[in-house]
Each structure stands twice: as structure tokens, then as C-alpha cells.
Amino acid sequence: MRIQAIACAGVSLVLVSGAQAAFFSFASDNDHTSYTFRGTGGTLNNANDPADPQTLLVDDNNGPLAALSFDVNFVANVQLSYLGSSALPLPGKYSHSYNLSGTFSFVDRTTSVPLLTIQVQGGLLTAIGNGNNLVTPTSWDDTATMQFSDRYGVVTYTWNGPNLPGYGLFGGFSSTAGDDGAFTLTSLVGPTGGLGVSVNPQTGLPSAQWFSEGSFSGQTTIVPAPGAMALAGMATLVLGRRKR
Fold first, then answer.
1. How far is CA 239 from the centre of its chain?
2. How far, in Å, are 52, 67, 136, 186, 199 from residue 122 at the CA level?
3. Which of 137, 155, 131 is CA-nearest to residue 98?
4. Residue 50: pLDDT band by 50, 70, 90 thresholds?
5. Per residue in 10-22, pLDDT tens?
6. In this structure, are residues 80 and 100 in contact, taking their beta carbons and an 8 Å threshold?
7. Contact in structure between 207 and 198 (CB atoms under 8 Å)
8. Is residue 5 part of a domain?
9. Mind giving me the DSSP string for 14-77?
10. pLDDT at 8 over 80
């Protein structure tokens, strides 16, 4: 992890603002060993690679500081429930919607400790695919999206990494509001490797195991207790003096 020189960066911003948004992201091709996701019925997990290595990027919400990169393993444990389908102005195409609830975790590959955890209730998965005239799904095509926001659900980011006050991150603290995130799913394949996923019209859920690539971005605002802010400031000043 490249975090050694960060404690002193942007410190003057830290103690004057009580809240600073942090932006997280990763690209699907960072894990070149497997797909990102696998699903069976109403269960969605990380792919079956034992490690699922990813590079998690942390940014100060498009501020002046450089993005930080962390070597992590990606873990997903999510449940889907079918909400409904609607016909699109395309021949035979429908938009299928699912409620999404569960946890996404980014685990430090060196310590095996969760660095970042996202808990979601009331998120949304949307897939375009085929259906029938009863407006029930019969398949997904090769792309889908997962999205979640405090505007329509409950999203909680918890940061267990080092104090990074310039990025609005304090170890052991969770967000309270203003969170969002999304995954773009591409290259959805069924058990035989063909693009697209078959869906059971009775349940609205995939009828066989499937895999996909996935990229992620999301933001959070963590407001630590006043005592934590003071400690972070003291630690930063000490490090700054040692460096000088």
C-alpha cells in the first residue's frame, strides 16, 4: 500500500472542515484472473477465484490530492429479489428490476483485515433482456447495473484503514448520510460460456449460475467525533515535525 507519505498531505484542509467526501473506485480488469461476480438464483457473490485481487483507488472527491491505491481482495455477499419488468420500445426487450441488499467488502491482502465495507439495504439491480407478453422476464442480455444511494435506500460505508484526514477517512468510523455507489456489469455469461443469462419466468431470477465482469465507483462522507479529529490533527503534526 502506498500510504507512507499521506499523513502530512493536505493537512491544513483536515482540521478546518468537519466533513470531506471520499471517492472509491476499481476497474474490472484489475483482476485478470477471473470474473468479478458470480450469481446463482437470488444470491450474488464475488467470482470463484480464491483471491479476487483488486486495486481499490481512494480519491479526495476530485480535490487536489493524488489518488491512493490499495491492494485488496474483493468480497460480495448480496441477495436479490425480483421487483418487476417493464416493456421497452424495442422489439421483445424488457427492463427487469431487482431489490438488492447485502455487503461489499475490500480486504487488505497483507493483513486480511477488511479495509472498506459497504452495507446496502434497498439497492437496485437492473438488467435489460427478453420477456413475454405477460411482462415476465425470460433472460438477461450481456450487461446490467447495480446501484445504491441514501436517496432511496440505506447505505453505510465503514473505513477500517489508517486515518487519512485529507481524504475524509478515519479508521473505525462509518458514514451517516450522503452515500452512493454503482457497479457496471459487463460480459454476463451463463454456465456454458455464452453471452446472456436465462431467467425463470416464475421467480424472475436466473435459472443457472452466471458470471460477469464488474467495475465500481462510489462516494461517502464520514464525520468523525471531535476527539477523533483532534487526535488525527496531533498525529499529523507529529509526523510533520519528524519529517522536517
1. 32
2. 26, 30, 21, 22, 22
3. 137
4. low
5. 333 333 344 678 9
6. yes
7. yes
8. no
9. HTT-S--EEEEEE-GGG--SS-SEEEETTEEEE-S-SS-EEEEEEESSSSSSPPEEEEEEEEEE
10. no
Domain extent, residue 103, equals 11-243
Asked, for residue 3, whether it belongs to a domain, the answer is: no
| 237 domain residue, yes or no | yes
Radius of gyration of the chain measured on its C-alpha atoms = 20
Q: Is residue 15 part of a domain?
A: yes
**Residue 130, C-alpha cell as written in the block:** 427478453
**pLDDT, tens only, 148-195:** 999 999 999 999 999 999 999 999 999 988 899 999 999 999 988 889
The predicted pLDDT at position 243 comes to: 43
- Residue position matching grid coordinates 481512494: 58
- Cα(139)–Cα(120) distance, integer angstroms: 25
What is the value of pTM for the model shown? 0.83
Which phi and psi (to 5°) does residue 146 adopt?
-120, 130
- Give how many domains the chain has, as a whole number: 1
Instruction: Scan for cell 485529507, then name that residue.
Output: 166
Euclidean distance between CA atoms 30 and 27, whole angstroms: 6
> CA 47 → CA 35, 156, 175, 210, distances in Å?
6, 23, 27, 10
Euclidean distance between CA atoms 61 and 171, whole angstroms: 18
